[in-house]
Specification:
The chain is mainly alpha-helical and 174 residues long. 52% of the residues lie in helices and 0% in strands. The N and C termini lie far apart (37 Å). Bound molecules: zinc ion. Keywords: Membrane, Transmembrane, Transmembrane helix.
């Protein structure tokens, strides 16, 4: 995985670029939360679930089904709280959640993504891996390898995200 903070980059850059009138603050916060949500599956390690299990890391919480259904449930239950239209809420939350497994699929480590759960337990990667996989232990970020992870995420996620936000902001200002 990229670090949990970097998973927030997609909704943050999109939301800030599109502006509060299109993506209200509550919707933006929900997008950030959903972009981080799939990695809650690391808690399964505490219960002895193996990494490669569908209920393990990068399993069902990283599936396409999860990415489409969870935003739908959020929109149906909390649309008024988001203060935006149903389609817009669902689209933004789906893009936010789906971005998580897409970013994971371009990392250099781990077991791949269980995109096709529950139809298949096969794990997938994107055709190319460019983001250095983040370690689970925080103290590893203080090592040279940890620094490489941070630089890699800045280069492949935050920099394009900031450019996209800037472009959207410019288009909005016209
Ligand atoms: Zn993940």
């Amino acid at each position: 995985m990229p670090t949990i903070i970097t998973h927030a980059a997609v909704p943050l850059c999109l939301g800030l670029g599109l502006g509060r009138n299109i993506i209200p603050r509550r919707l933006l916060l929900a997008g950030v939360a959903l972009a981080m949500l799939p990695d809650a599956d690391v808690l399964s390690f505490r219960f002895g679930v193996e990494y490669g299990n569908v209920f393990g890391h990068r399993g069902f919480t990283h599936s396409l089904l999860f990415a489409f259904v969870v935003p739908l449930l959020c929109v149906l239950t909390g649309r008024r709280w988001f203060q935006a239209g149903l389609i817009r809420c669902w689209l933004f939350l789906t893009v936010s959640l789906l971005s998580h497994s897409l970013l994971d699929s371009v990392t250099t480590g781990g077991k791949g993504i269980g995109w096709l759960w529950p139809w298949s337990s096969e794990r997938f990667f994107a055709p190319w891996q460019v983001i250095k996989v983040a370690p689970f232990a925080l103290k590893k970020y203080l090592t040279p390898a940890g620094h490489q992870v941070i630089v890699s995420e800045l280069l492949w996620v935050w920099l394009p995200g900031a450019l996209l936000a800037l472009l959207l902001w410019r288009l909005r200002r016209r």
